[in-house]
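Work package 3, deliverable 3.1, input record:
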Amino acid sequence: MSSSDTPRGTTGEPAGGRGGDWYEIRVQGRLDDRWAAWFDGLDLTRTDEGTTVLRGPVTDQAALHGLLHRLRDLGVPLHSVTRTEPGPGA
Amino acid sequence: MVDALVQTKLALPRVRPGLVARARLTEELQRADGAALVLVSAPAGFGKTTLLASTYADAPSVAWVSLDARDGDASRFWTYVLHAVDAVSPGCASPAVGILESGGGTLADVVASLVNELSVRAEDVTLVLDDYHLADTPEVSETVRLLVEHRPPQLRLVLGTRADPALPLSRLRARGELVELRAADLRFTVDEAGDYLNEIHDLGLTESDVQALEMRTEGWAAALQLAVVSLRGREDSSGFIASFAGDDRFVVDFLADEVLDQQPDPLRRFLLDTSVLDRLSGPLCDAVAGTVDGMAGGAVLELLERRNLLLVPLDDHRRWYRYHHLFADVLQVRLLGERPGDVPVLHGRASDWYEQAGDVEAAVRHAFAAGDLDRAADLIEVATPDLRRRRAERVLRSWVPAVPPEVLARRPVLASNLAGALMASNAFEGVSERLDAIESTLASPPAEMVVRDEAEWQRLPAVVATHRSGLALVSGNLGATLRQADIALERAGGSDQLTVASASALKGLASWAVGDLVPALAGYRAAARGLAAVDYVSDVLACTVTVVDLELALGHLDAAQQAAQDALGLAAAARDRLQVDVVRGTADMRLALARVAWERGEPDEAADHLRAAGDLGDDAGLPQQPYRWRIAMAALRESEGDDEAADALLAEAERVFNSDFLPNVRPVPAVRARLCIRRGDLAAARRWAAEAGVGAQDDPSYLREYEHLTFARLLLSEHEATGDPATLEVVAALLERLRDSAASSSRTATVVETSILLALTADAAGRADEALSWLTEAAAPAQAVGWVRPFLDAGPRVQDLLPLLPDAQAFADAVAAASRDGGSGASRAPGQAPEGGGALVVPLSARELDVLRLLGSDLDGPAIARHLNVSLPTVRTHTQRIYMKLGVNNRRAAVRRAHQLRL
């Protein structure tokens, strides 16, 4: 079942702790913290440039594409997707 | 096949009032006449659906499909597309639907069939696929690419999508064949925003307010919509807009919060609760969210729609709605943030409601979404028998990845259901391991084992053996197929008729594949009985097709006829009981009766049955019917002296051939080769022999028996031309080997055919006594049942020899009489209408006949035009008139009707 088939299935539990590489996704616009549950528990940081950085562990490529799909479906413009080191961002 | 609720996918969305007419965009779309593809590609909330719906609302012949995530499966995708297109241009997709539903061709064949049909029609068709990004899988895009590449001029293809599709866009762009509207085009201009806010919604905003809003929202339609809702009834619009402009939160967040805050608490709660649903109806909302201040769900939804709260009606009756996608996402995030624990509960209520409403797919979906694997497993197990009966294996199969092995380990019936669904979808990998796991569970049932379907549990050991038998058949292990089938039969006992039927059919198939026709027949008759007992009528008819084939091969003409008659009776009773127009397989039984009449040398009766079969239409036939009917009709036409028509029919038969997973014991190329031999075109027959790879030294093998016999006939004909005695020795040796092999398995038809050919061989070698001796052997089984066909098909020399046989005078007379009645040669002048043949009220013109002939080929419209040296519009007009005069609505039906009418 694809992620777009059961987007309403999450109970808001974060994906953190399930392993996988860490990613940093930068988007246009300021998303506040309550969106974290929608994005698999990633950490959200709003920057001064009017962008938001989503950061954290992503289980695998399928999960990454699922996240990108959700961002797309919100109409949130993507700036960058970068694989990064675990831990709090710079 | 397309149930009532999902008709909404094919309905053009109603254009809601309160929207801006964006003439600049609509006009650009309407101007896109010659484009290969019209693409509207922009993120969510830019008004794509609205634009497409309003552009095509009043256009003629628009086929609309609102795609969803499940349409990434190419079969489902094309099912919807074909039904949509057929609704606007009736008949154009029926052959394609036939190929798709029978599984007898590839998806490329389905597309080709649609393209071919559309290319000769007079009407243009616009196909709009909305939310294409949901279906854009490699499987689907491969077929859509074919459609674009081979598109008929009559088809305009329009895609609405959130992401550029995986199609060769840059190539189309470079060739000027792509018309695209993108986000930049779809953004509201300041003027359009002003119209929307002030003219349509009467907000009375100042110009600078409008500009501020337009800038902040960047012309994003969804944001403007939310802004309207937030601004309505607000005292200080300018102040609100100023604070909005100064806030840099995600636009939708800001506005949605405003909208939600404005709602009274019970309504707000309703909105959040129902956000878990992908579509909403009054009763469903009642079950999931309860009443709002005493108002029932239906009333609440109407209220929301009136307040323009981003609710989209899905049908004309105001029964089903959905939230605007963006709004739904926002609502869900709020719900997750505020009451995460409620989410599984809400899904659970939805699942319960859908279960009561009989929509098991939705019930299971919500059960999975609620994280309630056990409930989902229960639902699937209980729903399986009905899904199987409805042939909805695809649905069952889609659930396979969602149920983990641990759950299957304690639910053996469910495990068996899913294994069966995999096999029914031709996905055999891993099935053996699944069966091992089930047998483990059966051997030592765990304490926490769950069984919801007691009846299936009783059958389980037999079902597992049946599955193993099927697996063995697929891997070519015929011994194991028979062994496991016998185990299944033993375990089934008298009560499990479905297992008796499937296991017997497997045994029948395994025996048939090696030419053991007697056990094969027993297996198929047992299968037919079992299926009749559980009322699977079309399957009984399918088995009967093979029963008739086998009885004829064994020389039992009366039994063959009886079987077909009985099955027709069963079909008629079922048709009345089920209140349907026709039971699938009825046409096949008529064809079977035609074949028996043909074998008896009764061409008129055969012709009547063939015509009746043709009149019943495509829905009345099983997957092999189209090609079999054409073979039978070819024989009839040939006997009337129309070799050209016979050859055309056989060419069509090859094109529409469908193996239906049965052994191909009478390959169409070999049938065509026999026609060539009879016409004297030995070179063509030689070419067939080379391609088929048959040789005189080959060992007999049942699957190639027909081809070997054809080859023997070729050699005999070649001997007539060359006179080389060595050929006769070779043929005789080959025929004796074939005869011996056939005799050992009671394949009487082959024994008769080889004996006749051996008689001719001996006769050609000058050995008159031997010839008569062979002929006596051939006549023995045939005389008693009036089986004249093998003798008619053997050529005129046989009729010279037959009267020389002692004790066979009556039979010889019968053969001679049948031959005179047009049973075998050019005894009837072409064009002479037979008794009972229907004449056309308005005959076809010569030009129309030209076009009609080419409609039977696989040339598309433009190719036909080139061939006839006329313009495509001329071909289209002719085709339209042909369809009208023949009372049909697609090419295949037109050609079939023409054959029936001897045109």
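The beta strands of chain A are 22-28, 43-46, 51-57, 78-84.
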